[in-house]
Specification:
About 30% of the residues lie in helices and about 20% in strands.
Length: about 550
């Protein structure tokens, strides 16, 4: 979708918005992108860096453009969290990379999963993480091995292109699209069309910041449309026609904001054009002066949905979209698709919980085997660090559940195992302040021991820094990593929630918990909830009204 032309419009400094004629680089990141498109780095990796090794990589590519191909340098081992903000990037980074494999719509075949598993085992020291963006992240990747890794991924239809960087990142989709009988519509064709048209398209390879999308017809709202930059949510209009409600401007990090409805109805055949229009509005009107002010949520905050809709229609779509309805309220707030779920064809989908997304390469290969043995080799990733195996017949369900449980992959997990998430943390991330995944695993086990009968849905999200990759602000109990008295600890957020009563978690002023004390703290707060809740009261509702001194 082309930029609108505005002949004669004078250049204005503003916030560095291209549409206002101000295209000069405003910060080092904008200069880096102007010097060379991020997509150009692929050829240099293949032709030069894979031969010279890490020391031969241009700094602008190493800490900038390589993200366009899904590559981040990982944190050097042994650097404590207190050094995160005081060391330069080159002092924090190791000579190894995290490599993010994008899995649009969360859809994988057994063959694709085996390829990822093989890469993890052969090149990544057996480490793999399923993320809350439906991707798989590998670690310990050497630049010398990247061309071979790309060749293996692309041979089975996978890619790392624009998995990171100031680009349209993976398109979230319901992992059970086309499978569950209660979905509004199957969004798989829309996800596929957007990816086929625009993945790697230089029209959108230089956005002000990252651009996160979801397209889903799921009745459970499993792709968390409230916190995406753009989201298409399945609805039916007054005539009974299935289509999408359009939401724009969501995002968390240090300035959390929920997306807003534009109030339009998007037909399935319009999705790719409308998606491209929203992306182009962001590209042309997004704020490029400051990186911390560059996400589309800031533009939406200033414009509001009315003006955004008008600009989208007038300058990019060149047609008006009809008004449309809001989404229906889902039957449950549990969006992770964990458990045994009946498919529309009579088979079953088995969603199972990993430990905060961490899974080894060998175990990924085992999951592929189980998916073929008990199903048809279809696997899905979720937006909550979980996996789903499709197409399991009734008479094989319990055998498949047992086969997964033998590897500690739980189809019927405890509340704590099911709904605890954690970001990468200090183990690999250069921004992190504390360790997360191992701590969350230990916390889960301790809560299972102390509160074995706790059965109320509850999300516990553990984040290594303020950037909210594990969505700590929208969890019932959110932990944001920080240094407390020279030790690893967390700031506590309580009562966050996504859904019809979406809310950002309540931050208790000055309240910090040492990492070693988190189990004690959570146990006390949950016992208080069990004692003082009203009939049917959720933890989020309780935390909103509870006395702050008690919550401390």
């Amino acid at each position: 979708m082309s930029s609108p032309t505005r002949p004669g419009r004078p250049a204005q400094k503003g916030q560095g918005q291209w549409a206002l004629g101000y295209r000069e680089p405003l910060n080092p990141n904008e200069r880096m992108k102007k010097d060379s498109d991020g997509l150009d780095v692929r050829q240099r990796i293949t032709d030069i860096y894979s031969r010279t090794g890490f020391d031969g990589i241009d700094p602008g590519d190493l800490r900038g453009r390589m993200r366009w191909m899904g590559l981040y340098t990982q944190r050097a081992q042994g650097i404590p969290g207190g050094k995160t903000a005081v060391l330069e990037p080159e002092e924090l980074e190791d000579s190894f990379f995290m490599l993010r494999v994008r899995i649009d719509g969360g859809q994988l075949s057994a063959d694709q999963l085996r390829v990822i598993a093989g890469i993890s085992t052969e090149f990544g020291r057996g480490v793999a993480d399923v993320t809350d963006r439906q991707n798989v992240q590998l670690h310990w990747i050497r630049i010398e091995d990247v061309p071979e890794i790309w060749e293996r991924l692309e041979a089975v239809g996978l890619s790392t292109t624009e998995a990171c960087g100031d680009t349209p990142r993976v398109i979230l989709g319901c992992p059970l699209a086309g499978v569950l009988d209660d979905e509004v519509l199957d969004a798989t064709p829309a996800v596929t069309e957007v990816v086929d048209k625009y993945l790697g398209d230089r029209e959108f390879s230089n956005l002000p910041r990252k651009f996160k999308s979801s397209i889903s017809g799921c009745a459970h709202h499993c792709t968390n449309h409230e916190i995406n930059d753009v989201a298409f949510v399945g609805v039916r209009n007054a005539a009974g026609e299935a289509g999408y409600d359009l939401w724009v401007g969501g995002g968390l990090s240090t300035n959390p904001r929920f997306a807003e409805r534009l109030g339009v109805f998007v037909r399935p055949d319009q999705v790719s054009d409308v998606w491209a229009g929203v992306c182009a509005v962001f590209r042309d009107y997004g704020y490029r002066r400051s990186r911390t002010h560059a996400r589309i949520k800031f533009l939406m905050a200033d414009w509001g949905p009315g003006r955004f809709r008008q600009v989208l229609q007038d300058e990019y779509l060149h047609e008006a979209l009809p008004d449309g309805p809001a989404p229906d309220r889902p039957a449950t707030d549990q969006r992770d698709h964990v458990g045994v779920q009946k498919q529309v064809d009579g088979a079953n989908a088995l969603g199972f919980a990993l430990h905060t997304g961490r899974i080894g390469g060998e175990l990924l290969a085992t999951v592929a085997d189980i998916a073929e043995q008990y199903g048809q080799g279809r696997i899905r990733t979720t937006a909550d660090q979980k996996l789903v195996i499709l197409d399991v017949p009734d008479d094989a369900v319990e055998d498949a559940v047992a086969a997964l449980a033998a590897h500690d992959l739980q189809v019927r997990p405890s509340v704590f195992r099911r709904q605890t998430m954690a970001c990468t943390g200090i183990e690999f991330c250069k921004l992190a302040i504390v360790e997360t995944k191992g701590h969350a695993k230990e916390l889960t086990a301790e809560l299972e021991r102390r509160l074995p009968d706790f059965d109320t849905p509850l999300t516990i999200n553990v984040n290594g820094c303020p950037n909210s990759c594990a969505r700590f602000q929208t969890a019932d109990i959110g932990f944001k990593g920080m240094v407390v008295g020279g030790e690893e600890g967390f700031q506590v957020h309580l009562g966050g929630h996504l859904g019809f009563e979406s809310s950002i978690g309540r931050k208790l002023r000055g309240h910090k918990v040492l990492a070693t004390d988190t189990a004690d703290y959570v146990e006390r707060v949950l016992r208080g909830y069990l004692e003082h809740r009203t009939d049917g009261e959720s933890f989020a509702a309780y935390a909103t009204r509870a006395d702050e001194d008690w919550l401390r």
